[in-house]
């Protein structure tokens, strides 16, 4: 594959080194079925649906499926061996890794194979204890977690050796200097004597948080949370190996208080007691997800010693019980940019009673810890390319880097991408239309769960509008074309254009339709986002075609069709191969912070390296917004 950027070899801009060029048009979804082999248990099967062009390795990692790897997905460690059906093209790295017979049997390196057609993937058991893990968008993380365990066999006290129990324990841990709190001291005498002085010290950062009987040194777990306004995702990590063992998501239980952060802030202003109820709703959400992932992986929650929380500034404040009112009124001031490390129990979690909770810092009132986590996961401050990061949601956060300077901003997109304010809108659940393809006389729908359509989720909304623009049933202003024009040019689809009451609609299936008002809602959302990145490009003196990669992030953005996003102007007009579905990068960044104290420090450093640009005080914002409304 040739390019004007031959040195760029990862994350969707070019094919991976030695890999085949990914061929897809940026539309639709691909089913990937994983069969995970285990050494001492029956195989497990899990089918996931991903955007085309995502690597097999990322498809697994995003969904809690562990595949060996230590090189960050560059094809150099040759550990991510899987068997594919049908098998993809053979890369030069595959030829170096597998015998001809293995290649014929479908063995390939997962990081160099992209999912462009439905495939079945056979995943062998993990073979070794890795020293690194591949997390985020091709990021290699050296395993250096804050959670440490040390198994020690102590000499029992004698009249000639009357050292205190604590000193005896700490003397045996020669590579760390932890401190103990009162709760540990209360447990220490009994645990030591009941275990014949053979115990495991549990240390998080510099704190001795527990002493466990016997040797539990290989049992270390942590939970990474992406605390979204709409959806919350939890990933249970085995920090001993750096691998995810379970992933779960659910709607944020704060939903009844409003679908966006402004509504929830307003609720606390109208009734001071609402702050406590919102805090408890966040705690209940996190608590249920923790129980769910621990049950799925058959892990004792008491063995979860640390959690990481990545959320926007408002969600973080509400989870901590901090009054969010200053975030909702000018000049939009945070109580603190760097929340302190707290106990997980302060967040209402039923894990180890002295487990720590790491809360990501925020750049601004509307560029929060979830975006800092996303920048960490995507390496926005380390890559020399010009890259645009867009986290599409109710509040859309945008980050632009030219390789030297990183700027960020936020755009109020509203609830359209989450299915809110849409006549037949719904969240991405079974029955939601997620992809739409129009031909001259047919409508092809992709429905989550392969069941009867019940509504339209955000990606389906973008798809159907993009397709209507493409075939000419929506004009550039976002208005449905007159009936006679539709009948003349697309008679096979024209009868789907009808009216419900006084409003024109396009029928998708039975009682599921797209209304003219729905189109307007999407226009307003996409105009806010495109205005944001346009102004950032101008700030750095860049043009649209200077952007070498666009990263679509977030629970919605990751499943957005790149072709549809380009067609409606949600992202710059670029080849679809430059537009990458980045996955749940907030959750990935949270995972990185749990796996490496070095990466955790990198997240804090971003506060000094990234400039936040406030759009609301720009006198030309409204004019620029209007310019971006058309398709």
Keywords for this entry:
single chain; 631 residues; alpha/beta; six-stranded mixed beta sheet; 29 strands; disordered N terminus
Compact summary:
Helices cover 29% and strands 25% of the residues. The two termini are 32 Å apart.
Write up what this structure looks like:
With 631 residues, this protein is of the alpha/beta class. It is 29% helix and 25% strand. The chain is built from 19 helices and 29 strands. Strand 25 (503-509) and strand 26 form a beta hairpin.
How is the biggest beta sheet arranged? Answer: 6 strands, mixed
Q: Number of DSSP helices? A: 19
Secondary-structure class: alpha/beta
Strand order of the largest sheet: 14-13-12-15-17-16
The shape is globular
Q: Low-confidence segments, ≥5 residues, pLDDT <50?
A: 1-22
Share of helical residues: 25-40%
What portion of the residues fall into strands of 2 or more residues?
Answer: 15-25%
* Mean residue pLDDT: 89
E-strand count? 29
Report how far the terminal alpha carbons are from each other: 32 Å
Radius of gyration: 26 Å
């Amino acid at each position: 594959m040739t390019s004007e950027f031959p040195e760029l070899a990862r994350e969707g801009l070019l094919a991976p080194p030695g890999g085949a060029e990914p061929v897809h048009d940026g539309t639709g979804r691909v089913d990937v079925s994983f069969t995970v082999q285990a050494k001492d248990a029956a195989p497990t099967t899990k089918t996931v649906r991903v955007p085309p062009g995502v690597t097999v390795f990322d498809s697994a990692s995003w969904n809690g499926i562990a595949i060996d790897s230590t090189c960050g997905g560059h094809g150099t460690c040759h550990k991510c061996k899987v068997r594919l059906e049908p098998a993809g093209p053979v890369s030069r790295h595959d030829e170096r890794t597998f015998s001809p017979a293995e290649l014929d049997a479908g063995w390939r390196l997962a990081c160099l194979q992209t999912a462009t057609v439905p495939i079945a993937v056979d995943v062998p058991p993990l073979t070794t204890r890795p020293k690194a893990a591949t997390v985020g968008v091709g990021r290699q993380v050296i395993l250096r977690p804050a959670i440490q365990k040390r198994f020690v066999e102590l000499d029992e006290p004698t009249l000639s050796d009357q050292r205190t129990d604590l000193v005896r324990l700490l003397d045996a841990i020669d590579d760390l200097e932890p401190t103990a709190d009162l709760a540990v001291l209360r447990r220490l005498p009994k645990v030591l004597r009941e275990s014949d002085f053979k115990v495991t010290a549990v240390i998080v950062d510099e704190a001795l948080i527990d002493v466990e009987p016997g040797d539990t040194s290989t049992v270390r777990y942590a939970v990474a949370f992406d605390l979204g306004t709409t959806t919350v995702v939890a990933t249970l990590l085995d920090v001993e190996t750096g691998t995810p063992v379970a992933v779960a998501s659910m709607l944020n239980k704060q939903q009844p208080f409003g679908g966006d952060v402004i509504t929830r802030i307003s609720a606390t202003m109208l009734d001071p007691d609402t702050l406590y109820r919102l805090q408890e709703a966040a705690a209940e959400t996190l608590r249920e997800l923790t129980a769910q992932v621990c049950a799925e992986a058959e892990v004792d929650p008491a063995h979860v010693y640390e959690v990481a929380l990545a959320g926007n500034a408002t969600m973080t404040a509400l989870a901590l019980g901090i009054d969010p009112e200053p975030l909702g009124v000018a000049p939009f001031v945070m109580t603190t940019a760097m929340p302190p490390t707290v106990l997980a129990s302060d967040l209402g979690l039923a894990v180890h009673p002295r487990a720590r909770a790491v809360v990501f810092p925020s750049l601004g009132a509307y560029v929060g810890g979830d975006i800092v986590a996303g920048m960490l996961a995507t390496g926005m401050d380390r890559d020399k390319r010009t890259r645009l990061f867009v986290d599409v949601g109710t509040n859309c956060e945008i980050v632009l880097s030219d390789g030297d300077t990183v700027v960020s901003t936020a755009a109020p997109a509203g609830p359209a991408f989450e299915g809110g304010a849409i006549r037949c809108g719904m969240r991405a659940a079974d029955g939601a239309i997620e992809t739409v393809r129009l031909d001259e006389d047919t409508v092809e729908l992709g429905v989550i769960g392969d069941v009867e359509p019940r509504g339209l989720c955000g990606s389906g909304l973008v798809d159907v509008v993009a397709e209507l623009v493409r075939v000419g049933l929506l004009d550039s202003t976002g208005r449905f074309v007159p009936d006679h024009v539709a009948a003349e040019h697309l008679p096979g689809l024209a009868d789907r254009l009808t009216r419900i009451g006084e409003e024109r609609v396009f029928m998708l299936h039975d009682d599921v339709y797209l209304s003219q008002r729905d189109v307007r809602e999407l226009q307003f959302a996409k105009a806010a986002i495109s205005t944001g990145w346009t102004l950032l490009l101008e700030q750095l003196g860049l043009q649209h075609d200077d952007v070498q990669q666009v990263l679509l992030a977030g629970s919605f953005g990751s499943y957005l069709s790149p072709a549809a996003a380009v067609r409606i102007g949600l992202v710059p007009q670029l080849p679809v191969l430059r537009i990458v579905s980045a996955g749940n990068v907030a959750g990935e960044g949270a995972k990185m912070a749990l796996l490496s104290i070095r990466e955790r420090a990198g997240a804090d450093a971003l506060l000094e390296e990234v400039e936040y640009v406030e759009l609301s005080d720009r006198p030309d914002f409204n004019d620029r917004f209007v310019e971006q409304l058309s398709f």
